Amino acid sequence: MIVRRLDEVTSVDWGNGLSRRFLLESDGLGYTVTDTTVRAGTKSRLEYRRHLESCYCIDGAGEVVLADGTSHPIEPGTLYALDRNEAHFLIASQEEDLRLVCVFSPALRGDERHDLDSAEFSEY
């Protein structure tokens, strides 16, 4: 059994927020669970080419916008799943941080960070 507390996990500044990574590849479960904060007023250009990702909003507000312009509002109680490795923008509201519980499959190593300065979608 694996039991971890928020103050015990690896925290990674991924570019526009903080990802607290509860389960990693080294745990052998095949998926990662994170508690992720997206800083208020940020817009992140993201794409996961090697991972599927699902995110459940527990606090704050924002939107996820697909590369084709389709927008989906995010608020507490909303889940979105990038089930086809979609390139997307993750946008936190100007007023408050966005907090998500995320699942990645396959699992992350744990040290991944985004390159948000690129003109391309940041991927890992």
Can you give me a brief rundown of this structure?
The protein has 124 residues and is mainly beta. The protein contains no helices and eleven strands.
Summarize the structure in words.
The protein is mostly beta strands and 124 residues long. The protein is 0% helix and 46% strand. The protein is built from no helices and 11 strands. The strands form 2 sheets. Strands 1-2-3-10-5-8 form a 6-stranded antiparallel β-sheet, with no helix packed on it. A 5-stranded mixed β-sheet has the order 7-6-9-4-11, with no helix packed on it.
| Overall number of strands | 11
Report low-confidence residues grouped into runs of 5 or more.
none
How large a portion of the residues is in β-strands, by DSSP E? over 45%
- The chain-level mean pLDDT equals 92
Tell me the quaternary state.
Answer: single chain
The string of secondary-structure elements, in order, is EEEEEEEEEEE
Number of helices: 0
Give the helix proportion (percent range). Answer: under 10%
Cα(first) to Cα(last) distance is 28 Å
Shape: globular
Describe the biggest sheet?
A: 6 strands, antiparallel
Class from helix and strand fractions: mainly beta
Which radius of gyration do the C-alpha atoms yield? 14 Å
Strand line-up in the sheet with most strands: 1-2-3-10-5-8
Question: What topology emerges from the helices and strands here?
Answer:
Elements: E1 10-13, E2 17-21, E3 32-38, E4 43-47, E5 52-59, E6 62-66, E7 71-74, E8 79-82, E9 88-92, E10 98-105, E11 122-123
Parallel strand pairs: 4-11
Antiparallel strand pairs: 1-2, 2-3, 3-10, 4-9, 5-8, 5-10, 6-7, 6-9
